[in-house]
Amino acid sequence: MADQPNSPDSTSRPDSREPNWERAALERIALAAVKEQRAARRWKIFFRFAFLGVFVLLAFALIDFSSDAKLTSSGRHTALVTIDGEIAAGVNANAEDINTALGSAFDDDGTVGVVLRINSPGGSPVQAGMVYDEIRRLRAKHPDKPLYVVVTDMCASGGYYIAAAADKIFVDKASIVGSIGVLMDGFGFTGLMGKLGVDRRLHTSGENKGFYDPFSPETPKMDAHAQVLLDQVHAQFIKAVKDGRGKRLHETPDMFSGLFWTGEKSVELGLADGYGTTDTVARDVLKAPDLVDYTVKESLTNRVARKFGAAVGGAAMKALTAGGASFSLR
Predict the structure, then answer these.
(1) Nearest CA to 271 among 182, 157, 140, 133?
(2) Average pLDDT score over the chain
(3) What is the pTM for the complete model shown?
(4) What is the bridge-based pairing of β-strands 176-178 and 183-185?
(5) How far is the C-alpha of 305 from the C-alpha of 211, rounded, in Å?
(6) C-beta of residue 245 within 8 angstroms of C-beta of residue 149
(7) For range 174-194, the mean pLDDT
(8) Furthest-apart CA atoms within the chain: distance in Å
(9) For 268, phi and psi rounded to 5 degrees?
(10) Where are the domains of the chain?
């Protein structure tokens, strides 16, 4: 029986299955090729859109939508300059851009007067002082063109430092005004370091070079020197306010203590002159309702650079100076 030939079933089964296996293999190969083509097509579309996006960004960067170019008006108008946010170098509200805008506003022959719109909690005393001095200079150069400050939500500390240089200050009844003071803030980590068993190894070539190092303990000498610095800057701030407001101030014991008030109270104290908005001051006070905005707008290139720079360089700088003391009018 072992010599009997194979049955028809046993001989025909491989022959009948072979075409099916070949067909299945071909289908798998074809399907893989289709998937690969689809993936390649998707990546191709992605790169096309990415290239288009980069091209559009470059085009906008070349156009450079900044207002560095002088804005002009064909007729009488009220010039508008806006200060919004923290006043500091490297941000939108920096002295260089603000002073550039103010200079352009005053120099325009069609300008009847300037409205400086402020919404700021304060910031750098240096930046605020630079703008204050420039306003005083421009007012002396253009005595026929008044500068009025219009306060929106807040005009505190460094913001008020700048406002004090104006001919008049207009507020809303609910605006926050004042905070005439200076602060130096930072952090100390000595207690935490001791608990963690970490020693601070600081080497300096001068006795006071490590002044206000956040990882070193405070000393009476260090605190006394810091207070002298604060008092000097505070005295400069007070003088600027008194010089700017003059006899309009109704000085109280806590006027220069760092407190702030509502717009309504600020008018009573002589910190402000009355109520008004940008439109009402332009229309009713300056009699020139047409507004021309001279505010230096941040260009796209600067905005992109600032965002990337702030994310990388700014973070690194903060890490290097973490806990260190700094002056601010806020």
Answers:
(1) 157
(2) 81
(3) 0.72
(4) unpaired
(5) 33
(6) no
(7) 81
(8) 131
(9) -65, -35
(10) 35-64, 77-198+207-309+322-328
Confidence bin at 70 (pLDDT 50/70/90): very low
CA 119 – CA 156 distance, rounded (Å):
9
Contact yes or no for 149/116 (Cβ under 8 A): yes
Nearest to 181 by CA among 156, 218, 217: 156
For residue 321, pLDDT over 50 is answered with no
**Which stretches of the chain are DSSP H helices?**
8-63, 95-107, 125-141, 158-163, 190-196, 220-245, 263-269, 278-280, 300-309, 315-321
Query: What's the token pair of residue 110?
Result: 């069609």
The one-letter amino acid code at 232 reads Q
One-letter amino acid at 303 equals: R
260-286 pLDDT, tens digit each: 999 999 999 999 999 999 999 999 999
Note the pLDDT of residue 322: 44
Q: What Rg, from alpha-carbon coordinates, does the chain have?
A: 34
Helix (H) or strand (E) holding 122: none
pLDDT band at 120 (very low <50, low <70, confident <90, very high): very high
What backbone torsions phi and psi does residue 327 show, to the nearest 5 degrees? -80, 145
| Token digits of residue 169 | 């200050």
Return the ∠ at Cα 191 (arms to 189 and 196), rounded to 5°: 90
DSSP characters over 276-307: --HHHIIIIISS---EEE---PPPHHHHHHHH
Q: How confident is the model at residue 19 (pLDDT cuts 50, 70, 90)?
A: low
CATH superfamily of 77-198+207-309+322-328: 2-enoyl-CoA Hydratase; Chain A, domain 1 (3.90.226.10)
Contact 157, 118 (CB under 8 A): no
Gap between the terminal Cα atoms of the chain:
108
Output the CA torsion 146→152→156→158 (10° steps).
Answer: -50
